[in-house]
Structures are given as structure tokens and as C-alpha cells.
Amino acid sequence: MAKRPYIQAVALPEAEGFISNDDTSRTLTEQTYAELRTDIIEGRLLPGSKLRVEHLRQTYAVGAGTLREALTRLVSDALVSAEGQRGFRVSPIAIDDLEDLTRLRVHIETNALRESIRHGDEAWRARLRASYEELAAVEQPLTRANRGRWEALNLRFHETLLDGRPSPWERKVLKLLSRHIERYRSFAIELPGAVRDVHAEHTEIFELAMSGQDARAALALEAHICATPHQLLRALREGRMILPAAEA
């Protein structure tokens, strides 16, 4: 991984409206957390690999304290595991884990969608249309170059689908599940011979939601959610994919 430019924290006087040392430290921790999270999700830090603080300090150009704070946050997200006195490791991936994540997401998200459609008003439908149109403009076609923006818009679209009857706790749980499923989607997108029209799937869900067909929309959403694990399972059976092994 290429070395990143060093960012130096400079103490400036708060009385003049500048950022304090504490604020700078928090900003560096947030930035490091976001970069590590992206590198884990996109597979640049491989599942099961050791996260050596001294090596990562050079890569991310931050101090050991900032790096450990960021890694501790990733432990809370379950994207990193702490190994007692032995440091940190990227959480492994496994088909059983993906199937469990998928079952939980289907259970929560399809029920939430039905409630959202039943209680959603015109303002919600307007937000859903705007979110869908912004997503559609990016995923036709979906490429490696626009994938980062697509992930953000995809998350927003799925959140907006459920906003007809919002639940803060549902959103928190689903956001955590989404972070983990995104890791698996990174592998699925790179699969040779993978054929899937994600835009058509989103269009079907959107149109059914807008027309108030909650049961059919929930079924379409379930099929959409299950498509990634089905792709990966098929690729494993056909030998087109091997899950990364953990470091010794």
C-alpha cells in the first residue's frame, strides 16, 4: 500500500477561533478510522490479516495513539478484532457469516419496508423519487470508478425506502449490517462472469413502493438482498472464487 502524505497537527490559539489540539486529534482519528474502514471494506486490508501498528503508522501517517483509537472504533463495528496483547486483526469473512447477516437483514428490512409503505406520505414519496433518480444516474453503468459514490447513494436509497415510518434503532442496526455486507459485495462485483442488473432490481422495488404494493415490494427487496450471497455461493461451487485465508 502506498505511503500517504503526513498530516501534522498544529496547536492554534482557541481565542482567535482556531481549532484546538483536542479538535485536531479528533479530526485525525475520524480521518484514520474512515480510511481504515474503506480499506477493509474494499479488500485492500485482507480479511484475517494482522494490523501491525508500526507498519500502519507509516501507511496512514499518524501516531500510534490515533491509530489505536481508530482501530478500537473498528472493533466496535466488528470489522476488526482485538487479540488481547497480540494486537489487532481484520475480521475474517465466511459464507456462514454472510448467510447470517443476510437472514437478519431480510427479516428487519422487509418488515420495515412494508410499514414504511403503509404509513408513508407524499413528502416521503418525493424523497424516495429523488433518492432513486440520483442512484439511477450513477449505476447505469456501475463501474469500479464510480463505485464509491454508488455505495453512498445505494445506502441512502435503502434508508429512504424505510423512512415512511422511521425508526432510529432500525436505522442503526441496518447501517451496521450494511457495512459488513458491503465487504462481501466488493468480492461479488469483481467476480468473473457475474451477470446482474442491479438497476433493474432497484427500479422494481422503487415502482412497487411508490404504487403502495407493500407485499410485492417486500418480496422484491428480499430477492435483491439475497442476490449477493447467491452469487458468491455459486462462484465458490464453480471454483471461480476462493475466500482469503487468515494470516498465521
Question: What is the general shape?
Answer: globular
Low-confidence stretches: 2-20
| Largest β-sheet summary | 3 strands, antiparallel
How many domains, in number, for the residues? 2
Helix content: 55-70%
Give the helix/strand class: mainly alpha
CATH level-1 class of the largest domain: Mainly Alpha
Q: Per DSSP, what share of the residues sits in E-state strands of 2 or more residues? A: under 5%
CATH-level-4 superfamily name of the largest domain:
GntR ligand-binding domain-like
- CATH fold-level name of the largest domain: Four Helix Bundle (Hemerythrin (Met), subunit A)
Mean pLDDT: 84
User: Care to count the β-strands?
Assistant: 3
CATH second-level architecture of the largest domain: Up-down Bundle
What Rg do the Cα atoms give? 20 Å
Give the termini separation.
20 Å
Order of helices and strands: HEHHEEHHHHHH
If strands are numbered along the chain, what order do they take across the biggest sheet? 1-3-2
Number of helices: 9
Task: Explain the overall architecture.
- The protein has 248 residues and is mainly α.
- The protein folds into two domains: 14-90, Winged helix-like DNA-binding domain superfamily/Winged helix DNA-binding domain (Arc Repressor Mutant, subunit A), CATH 1.10.10; 95-237, Up-down Bundle (Four Helix Bundle (Hemerythrin (Met), subunit A)).
- Helix content is 64%, strand content 3%.
- It contains nine helices and three strands.
- The protein has a three-stranded antiparallel sheet with strand order 1-3-2.
- The chain is globular.
- The two termini are 20 Å apart.
